[in-house]
Amino acid sequence: MDLSNIKPAVGATSNSKRVGRGAGSGKGGTSTRGHKGAKSRSGYSRKIGFEGGQMPLQRRLPKFGFKNINRVEYKAVNLRDIVALAEAKNLAKVGIEELRAAGFAGKKQLVKILGVGEINRALEVEANAFSAAAQQAIEAAGGKTTKV
Q1: CB atoms closer than 10 angstroms to residue 66
Q2: Sign of the CA dihedral running 39, 45, 48, 54
Q3: DSSP letter at 24?
Q4: What is the rounded average pLDDT for all residues in the chain?
Q5: Does 30 have pLDDT greater than 90?
Q6: Going by C-beta distance under 8 Å and a sequence separation of 6 or more, which residues neighbour residue 75?
Q7: How many Å apart are CA 73 and CA 110, to the nearest integer?
Q8: If you ran DSSP here, which 8-state letter would residue 95 be given?
Q9: What is the per-residue pLDDT for 129?
Q10: Which of 10, 33, 112, 116 allows an S-S link to 129, with CB 3.0 to 4.6 Å?
């Protein structure tokens, strides 16, 4: 046995139906496309979402809301995370670069400090934004906040 003897299993392949080759072939005339209508014509392709002329779902549903083009998106970092990072790396100043290096924010993300957690030591914290609770907690512990 070699490659020239190999054949597919019986019934695994079939010849394609040759249509539009004259009346004598039995597949002439309308060439299995039925009579008239868009689907019988050449170049037919149905639009995405077309429902046969019925009002499509995406047009039946109500529209609401909007995208605020002036929205500034921040990556939220809690006080407890900052305290844990400062203790683990023995830092007195926690800035955006330290937070990015620790994986709390991406390279181009803005950072906002939120007030979840306790802070019990004076830390100098640098970020793009602070919540009021976070700023009060840091300053109450003797620390300093700096907006970049």
Answers
A1: 6
A2: negative
A3: G
A4: 94
A5: yes
A6: 104, 105, 106, 109, 110, 111, 112
A7: 7
A8: -
A9: 97
A10: 112
How large a percentage of the chain has pLDDT more than 90? 96
- Three-class SS of residue 127? strand
Q: What secondary structure letter does DSSP report for 77?
A: E
Q: At what angle do helices 132-140 and 79-89 cross, to 10 degrees?
A: 40
Q: Calculate the CA dihedral of residues 76, 79, 81, 84 and round it to 10 degrees.
A: 160
Across the strands, what pairs with 75? 111
**Residue 48 confidence (pLDDT):** 94
Q: Which residues pair with 126 in a beta bridge?
A: 146
- State the Cα–Cα distance between residues 120 and 44, nearest whole angstrom: 71
Residue 146, SS3?
strand
| Residue 44 per-residue DSSP state | -
1: pLDDT confidence band, cut at 50, 70 and 90? confident
Supply 67's token pair: 């995208």
